[in-house]
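pinging the channel bc i need a second pair of eyes. not urgent but kinda urgent?? the chain im working w is below, pasted from the shared doc
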Amino acid sequence: MRRIRQLVLLLAYFGMYSYAAPAFNLRITCDDKLALYVDGTDQAANLNNPNTWNKDDVVKISSTFQVIAAQCVNAKTSSKLGLLASLDDDNGDVLMTSDTENWRCLA
């Protein structure tokens, strides 16, 4: 059986949310190595834990974003691969999670 070593998730924004809020909080983690892009801009400088699967990162992103892309690379061939993400506003209201139909997996 072939193990998946890399997972790429995309969240495309299609005008689902029309908030006056200037920013959202993207909470994200993956096992093992995370690369994150918002509208094509690398967010590496905003990640405190990109290589720590059991600690999430919280990244402020503009409420006018169009696409979030997360790449997760599994460093160990014998372990499982996973990615968790959610998007919330400053009130803590969860707008979407990585298990909704808004995310597309391109493994």
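so Residues 12 and 81 are 22 Å apart (CA to CA). and The first strand starts at residue 6 and ends at 12. — does that match what u expected or am i reading it wrong
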